[in-house]
């Protein structure tokens, strides 16, 4: 059948495919709402710091090639979300020029006032309808799933190296950063979970967390499929803890989506 190296490469590329599109639902959500207020700033900040440490640790520890490529892509995704949070921050909206105020002594014309009121009500209804249409994830998950599967198959077929034998050299500095990254990943979701209690998950795309579950699950499988030797597992334990532990918190966020959706 298939060697452990091929299985590891396949799940590694599946994970990479998931992460390539994982933040896309949230990016589209932010763009459609012209707001990133559904995201907790602490969540993105801790997540980004964890990604930077993960990239440095992956390079120094000489882990699987797919793990290093994933770590680099994580950092690129973080920049996109941070850019949107800065771009759509409320303080930028306040910098728009204000219109000249009406003279104090001017009295509003009753007919004009009635037309303005009717126009405002019409605009409000249109705006509400638009927000309701745009508030969901507009990226179909089946299309993302098809892309991920295709990416996994194509990546495995084109990768002729299959990473060879795992490097079991213990790099202390890389291990320290790896565990630091794992702790940051595990704690990053906590601010978002608390924010969801206030916002009822408004402005948050469930697709990002669904893809995160699949990405981290295949990531863990790609590591364990390479080898189950105790020395190898111990060497990669921080990456296993960071990837596997986050799944638990992602399920909490998805449970919040279901709970708040049922109350609407």
What does this structure look like?
This protein is mostly helical. It has one domain. The protein has eleven helices and no strands. The termini are far apart. The relative contact order is 0.20. About 9% of the residues have low confidence.
* SSE succession: HHHHHHHHHHH
User: Structural class, from secondary structure content?
Assistant: mainly alpha
Q: Write down the Rg.
A: 23 Å
Helix percentage = over 70%
Shape estimate:
globular
**Structural domain tally:** 1
User: What is the residue-mean pLDDT, rounded to a whole number?
Assistant: 82
Short description:
The protein has 264 residues and is mainly α. It contains 11 helices and no strands.
Chain-wise SSE layout:
Blueprint: H1 4-22, H2 24-33, H3 41-61, H4 65-87, H5 90-93, H6 110-134, H7 141-158, H8 172-199, H9 206-226, H10 230-235, H11 237-263
Label this structure with key terms.
mainly alpha, single chain, 77% helix
């Amino acid at each position: 059948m298939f060697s452990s190296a091929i299985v590891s490469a396949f799940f590694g590329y599946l994970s990479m495919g998931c992460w390539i599109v994982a933040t896309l639902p949230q990016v589209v959500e932010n763009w459609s709402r012209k707001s990133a207020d559904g995201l907790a700033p602490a969540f993105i900040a801790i997540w980004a710091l964890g990604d930077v440490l993960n990239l440095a640790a992956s390079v120094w520890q000489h882990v699987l090639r797919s793990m290093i490529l994933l770590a680099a892509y994580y950092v690129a995704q973080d920049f996109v979300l941070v850019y949107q949070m800065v771009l759509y921050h409320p303080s930028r909206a306040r910098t728009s020029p204000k219109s000249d105020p009406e003279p104090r002594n001017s009295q509003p014309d009753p007919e004009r006032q009635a037309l303005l009121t009717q126009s405002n009500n019409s605009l409000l209804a249109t705006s509400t309808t638009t927000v309701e249409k745009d508030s969901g994830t507009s990226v179909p998950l089946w299309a993302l799933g098809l892309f991920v599967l295709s990416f996994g198959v194509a990546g495995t077929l084109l990768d002729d190296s299959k990473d060879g034998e795992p490097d079991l050299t213990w790099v202390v500095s890389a291990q320290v950063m790896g565990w630091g990254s794992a702790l940051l990943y595990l704690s990053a979701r906590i601010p978002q979970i608390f924010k969801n209690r206030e916002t009822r998950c408004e402005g948050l795309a469930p697709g990002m967390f669904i893809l995160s579950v699949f990405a981290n699950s295949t990531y863990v499988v790609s590591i364990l499929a390479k080898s189950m030797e105790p020395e190898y597992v111990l060497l990669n334990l921080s990456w296993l803890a960071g990837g596997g532990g986050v799944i638990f918190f992602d399920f909490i966020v998805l449970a919040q989506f279901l709970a708040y959706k049922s109350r609407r």
